[in-house]
Design goal:
Layout (H helix, E strand, L loop, with lengths): L1 H4 L7 E3 L10 H28 L6 H30 L3 E3 H34 L4 H4 L2 H24 L19 H6 L6 H34 L4 H9 L2 H23 L5 H26 L1 H17 L1
Antiparallel strand pairs: 1-2
């Protein structure tokens, strides 16, 4: 054990895990994951492209959507290499520094997604409760400041959590139970006191997704109260319809996250591959579903995508 304890952090090599018990089927399992990654990368790239290139979409709601697509692209790329590397080449080794970098970016993009969803809830509240002041409240400068605040918030909260892992000694098994680096998983491999790490990790969770999960429903309570004060039933229906896409994005972000928490807590008797597949899927579902939701439910995005596709076909 002492030999492990004296190992410098830069020389530590962790072993990532594919799907336990189904190693012989990794090549076949990679097919749906490849499809999901292709869908996530192409879908979010198209949404981002149409928002940038179509002047009609240069409005606050779509600027926030472009932030969401950028975050989803980052989240997809953060896990792409290690996950497909395991499935295709059984490339399980990852250095300590690479592991910390991957962990930081996965959690940064997850926190950013939660923050953007909160900003989008505020956007819907302002648009419905005070439509005449919408453009003056959510100016381009305010939106840019929101984007900077989203990145800064995640970076400041998550940096201590990742840096504190460097002070630990790792003298137990080097096998991680996911196909990507996950803070609790790395922490469990330490043979030193991790109480400070646990406190910092829990604080980071509460101050990001925890806070956001309170303010998003609060925003919708205020939206509902505003909508019911509208006299015309047609106007009420129209106001609610503008929130459907955002509610879908909130659902595909929080439901897999809550499901993963329940499986870890109450599914101890479930086969190991169930935990692994849900852990992998919970990072892929939002990037895959968000562009689909917004393309189907938002008429302006759908029209812009079809216009770009039609222009591309015409040029051919």
């Amino acid at each position: 054990m002492s030999a492990f304890k004296n190992t410098t952090s830069s020389s530590i090599i962790f072993l990532l895990t594919g799907v336990p018990g189904l190693e012989a089927f990794h090549t076949w399992i990679s097919i749906p994951f490849c499809f999901l990654y292709a869908t996530a990368l192409s879908g979010n790239s198209v949404v981002l492209f149409v928002i940038i290139t179509q002047p009609s979409l240069h409005e606050p709601m779509y600027y926030f959507l472009s932030m969401l697509s950028t975050t989803d692209l980052g989240l997809s790329v953060s896990t792409l290499v290690t996950m497909l590397g395991i499935f295709w080449f059984n490339a399980r080794e990852i250095s300590f520094n690479a592991c910390l970098s991957q962990m930081f970016f996965i959690q940064l993009f997850t926190v950013m997604e939660s923050s953007v969803l909160l900003a989008m809830a505020f956007d819907r509240f302002v648009a419905i409760s005070n439509p005449l002041r919408y453009a003056s409240v959510l100016t381009d400068l305010k939106i840019a400041q929101t984007g900077v605040a989203v990145v800064t918030r995640g970076t400041l909260i998550l940096t201590p959590m990742v840096v504190l892992l460097r002070r630990l000694s790792y003298c137990r098994s080097r096998v991680l139970h996911h196909s990507y680096c996950f803070h609790p998983g790395v922490m469990k491999l330490s043979c030193t006191d991790t109480r400070l790490n646990s406190v910092v990790g829990l604080t980071a969770l509460i101050t990001t997704a925890g806070v956001d999960s309170i303010f998003i429903p609060l925003s919708y309570l205020l939206i509902i109260r505003t909508v019911f004060s509208i006299a015309s039933s047609e106007e009420r229906k129209k106001a609610f319809s503008t929130c459907i896409s955002h509610l879908g994005a909130v659902a595909v972000f929080y439901i897999p996250l809550i499901s993963l928490s329940f499986v870890h807590r109450f599914g101890k008797r479930a086969p190991p591959y169930v935990h692994t597949l849900i852990a992998n899927a919970h990072l892929l579902i939002p990037p895959v579903m968000n562009p689909i939701i917004y393309s189907v439910k938002t008429k302006q995005i759908r029209r812009a995508v079809l216009k770009v596709l039609h222009t591309t076909e015409t040029k051919k």
